[in-house]
Amino acid sequence: MSSTAPLPHYEVYAIRYATRPARRTDNFIGGDPHDGPMPMDYFVWLIRGDDREFVVDVGFGHEVAGKRDRKLQRTVAEGLALMGVEVAKVKDVILTHMHYDHVGTFDTFAEAQFHLQDDEMAYATGRYMRHAHLNHPYEVDEVTGMVRLVYERRVTFHRGEAELAPGITVHRVGGHADGLQCVRVSTRRGWVVLASDVSHYYEHFEQRRLFATMFNLGDALEGYDTLEQLADSRRHIVPGHDPLVMERYPPASPELEGIVARLDAEPTY
Q1: CA-CA distance, 131 to 149, in Å (whole number)?
Q2: Strands 181-187 and 237-239: what pairing?
Q3: CB count in 10 Å sphere of residue 37
Q4: Where residue 35 falls among pLDDT bands split at 50, 70, 90?
Q5: Is it the case that residue 243 has pLDDT exceeding 60?
């Protein structure tokens, strides 16, 4: 009689590395009738198991922060070092997509294998990049850098859903970028979904509203259903840029409050 081994439970952390001021009208297609401040946080995520770690997205650095007027609070390498992770030795990086704020420090991950959707590489190097509205979130040098890594056999491509390790899966959603993917993780509190830019803020998936930068509106709206199907509940969905993440989850340690939130713990609300 065969038996199925239980899935491992991973620790999951959100590491805040940058922020920028914004207003509600900036963050919704069509603006917002109740305008006011709605700042944006920038995160990378760490998935930690007994014998394997994954970094999800790799942020941006000083040059792009200056170019795009973002406030870099710490480098991605410094943020991960707070969790005992040396970027040059990371073995696996999941790129949810190739926008500047998710791929920008890829070259510091000297030993990593990058996990990316087929559709994202095709999108970032294809015909749609002729349009300023769609190419604005990409940095050409970062896209060409990732192409070089393909030739070095350091990019593992996925088409749709894929299991990267027991209890860790990726799922193509599209919408904000054509090859955008989210990450589903088995944790002590159940299935947690790192939405990344499938939902920038809680309001996007909770109210079925859309962020202002968008490739395919239909895919984005269907993506909210995908998030809810993958997660154990709405409380298990973690948006990609919402400052509320730091409020709703406990810090990884008292000294890391406001810097690293522990997402496999129960949110406070």
Answers
A1: 25
A2: unpaired
A3: 8
A4: very high
A5: yes
Q: pLDDT tier at 1 (50, 70, 90 boundaries)?
A: very low
Say what the pTM is.
Answer: 0.97
Q: Give the torsion sign (CA, 28, 33, 34, 35).
A: positive
The answer to whether 79 and 15 are in contact (CB under 8 A) is: yes
Tokens of 247: 């409020």
pLDDT digits (tens, 9 = 90+) for 73-103: 999 999 999 999 999 999 999 999 999 999 9
Residue 261 parent element (H or E)? strand 260-262
Domain 11-262 in this protein, CATH class: alpha beta
Give the tokens for residue 188. 């002590």
Phi, psi for 222 (deg, rounded to 5): -65, -30
User: Which residue type occupies 55?
Assistant: V
Q: Cβ atoms within 10 A of the Cβ of 46, count?
A: 24
**What are the E-state strand segments in 112-215?**
113-117, 155-158, 161-165, 168-172, 181-187, 190-196
Beta carbons within 8 Å of 258's beta carbon, 6+ residues apart: 16, 246, 251
Q: How many CB atoms lie within 10 A of CB 31?
A: 13
Cα-based angle 132, 183, 159 (whole degrees, multiple of 5):
70
Strand 92-94 to strand 155-158: parallel, antiparallel, or no bridges (unpaired)? unpaired
Q: Which residue has tokens 């079925």?
A: 208
Question: Residue type at 71?
Answer: K
What is the number of alpha carbons within 13 Å of residue 253 lying toward its C-beta?
5
Domains of the chain, residue spans: 11-262
The residues pairing with 262 across neighbouring beta strands, listed in sequence order, are 13
Report the C-alpha gap between 73 and 42 in whole angstroms.
Answer: 10
